[in-house]
Amino acid sequence: MLTALTIQNIVLIERLTVSFSTGLTALTGETGAGKSILLDALGLALGGRADSGLVRQGAERASVTAEFDIHNTHRVHDVLADQGLRTDDGDRLVLRRTVGQDGRSRAHINDQPVSIGMLRTVGDLLVEVHGQFETHGLLDARTHIDVLDAFAGLDAALQTTAGAWTAWRSAAKARADAERQAEEARREEEYLRLTLEEFDALTPEEGEEDRLVEQRTFLMNREKIATAINAALEGISGHKGAVSGVVTAQKALDRVGGQAGNRFDAVIEGIDRALAELEEVRTELESVGADMDLDSRELERIDDRLHALRDLGRKHRVPVTELAALHKAVADRLALIDSQDDRLGGLAATEAETRKTYEDAAAVVAEYRRQAAERLDRAMAAELPPLKLDKARFETSVEAVSEREWGPSGTDRVTFLVATNPGTTPGPINRIASGGELARFMLALKVVLAEGQRQAGAAPTLVFDEVDTGIGGAVADAVGERLGRLATGSQILVVTHSPQVAARAESHAKVEKTAPTTGGVAEDSQESLATVVRPLDLVERREEIARMLSGAAVTDAARAAADSLMAHHPAPPGKRKGGRGTTGKSA
């Protein structure tokens, strides 16, 4: 619910703070007292259009702060969480909007900067405004289906339908993706087969280029390498080579080994190891030398292979190192073509199955909607006559839409239609009804919904701006009675000129302009007027309702009539001293 509204430098208001309570609150006052400024300011805080003309003359900027107390289960908390906005104060939510003299504005939620669009999204979840010239919520035809579903209590059925929709669309996408890939493959099939033949003929291997380059370098330098090998072998095993010298040393030590005891054991072991290692080196050198005897055409074959690999890489615009992977990819793509009929058949079967599941779930929802539409129309038919809409007709249209309009909520379009004169064809509610009729239609619909099933996430605060315009007597009393019923489950603010409506309120505040005094003399220039929102106690309520009944001159008869109205509709015990609104003053 809305707990407080603080306005600074809006039009003639320098600073004004108004507190609000639960239930039905009436805002009354003479025409021009400033009631519309309050609603304009509230609309600004909810994300409405900003205008530099709202900034009070002489001020650099204007601001409006709306404070709310929101239950922790309300959908607005999920919206805030999705945007990463903190809700450190629990159920307290503060919307703030500032507007500069250039018309540019900034928005904050709980002192965190947000876009105007985000502020409007949150505002729409918190407050609905219904009046002669402005309506939110139910007049948007896109919301009608949600309203009917909430009235029908279709949460479980809608979850089933949404799940079936997701499964069907996922299956359809998988089938479409596979068909697209198969079609692309079919278009490329001839090219792919020729490419595969080309790759199969060459059969590139992973790391082959590096190996070939190494072999090529080796073969191109084989004469130098052979000379070096021969020289090394001569140094190791030649007449004066290392092996011969080591053997000579070994024999010399062996001759004196008996006389030296074990002093040469370690040396002899080292010589044995050296001879063994020299033999290994000689064997390896001879092996490398044997490679020198390869076919002289081997270098030519390596060159041809390298050229072939590099030509293939250039042709397909990939490095030689990626040819082996490309070979496999081409083979896999052709395998997909060869097996695509079986795969596509399985995907199509899954799509058909999930579509049937979705259509069955949507059909159940559609039937529930048609039944709920009949109940809603009957309930509305009972509500309209007391609101001076006895000749009007309300119809809830539930019609099937084309497949391209199907969605998670089913296959229907829901539209609220009205006819205000007998014999006329019902049309969209926001095109047929006049301003006053529109607000009363909304009031009736809200009452029916509240008495049926309050929609989850609905705005906890509803504002009705002069919903009683052009009516009086029993009709105005019927409007007040319905507002009172609606206020049992919501916070209702009503701007009214009807004493019958005001008498139904649990809290009553009067909006008026006053002129400050200087030396006991009232200043009545427009610039010096002050706007005051004053909560009324029982005596003041009686006087205000009497004024609304009789006009400027309050008579004893009007006071008696006010007593009668208030006696028939007493405020609850806790509210009999009037509302909790605080006064505010403008410059």
Short descriptors:
587 residues; alpha+beta; six-stranded mixed beta sheet; 17 helices; elongated; disordered C terminus
Write up what this structure looks like.
It is a single chain. The chain has 587 residues and is an alpha+beta fold. Helices cover 52% and strands 17% of the residues. It contains 17 helices and 17 strands. The chain has helices spanning 35-45, 76-82, 116-126, 144-152, 155-202, 208-220, 222-237, 242-256, 265-291, 298-316, 323-383, 429-432, 435-452, 473-486, 499-504, 538-550, 556-568; strands at residues 2-10, 13-19, 24-28, 61-69, 92-100, 105-109, 112-114, 127-131, 393-400, 412-419, 427-428, 461-465, 491-495, 507-514, 517-518, 521-522, 530-535. Strand 12, helix 14 and strand 13 form a beta-alpha-beta unit. Helix 5 (155-202) runs antiparallel to helix 11 (323-383), helix 8 packs antiparallel against helix 9 (265-291) and helix 13 crosses helix 14 (473-486). The radius of gyration is 46 Å and the shape is elongated. The model is unreliable at 517-524 and 576-587 (pLDDT under 50).
